[in-house]
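thread: overnight batch results

M.L. [08:02]
morning all. the overnight job finished for the chain we discussed friday. pasting input first so we're all looking at the same thing
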Amino acid sequence: MASEQDDALREMARHRGLRLRKSRRRKPGGDFGKYGLTDPDGKPVFGFEGKALMAAAKDIEAYLRGAMVADWKSSTKGLKRRAAPKPPPPPPPPPKLKVRLANLFAKLPAARRSEAFTELLTRPGIRVERIVSRGQATPADAPMRQDHDEWVLLLQGAAAMRIGTSDEVELRPGDHLLIERGQEHWVTRTAEDPPTVWLAVHLG
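M.L. [08:03]
and the structure it wrote out:
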């Protein structure tokens, strides 16, 4: 009775145009259970020694699989191998950032006749400026008033201010205050030497 193994080998041989032979001779020293392959005309192809069958099932399978690989290789001869696509080049590194460094106390303007205003930064809704004063003050009859809030920080020197109905307040380096929109305010005095340096942040 044919086994599943024999059926599988027979099918593989058929696909190769061959026939599977299996010995059933049980004589002592015979080739019972051995295999061989012939062509369609019965001529030995593999596994024969004279008329005796000599191959084991694994030999037949290895031969048939090896033949299949050889056929596949021969069928691909002469075909142009498609080159693998080249990977895209890596993106260039970002340009090196150049930091623009500045100093609030560098190259202070003389500000002898009037206060000097230097714009440092402008963005939507905000403007930052440096103010240098040398003894200037706001006339009593001409208070300053603006349509936005202003935060001021005294960096150097000394000054005094009055906002609305407040008393005069003195400012030393590090002091800061907020002047709200529409408030009348006066710079009542500023130091001359060293010059008074302000940082003003206009909001809105």
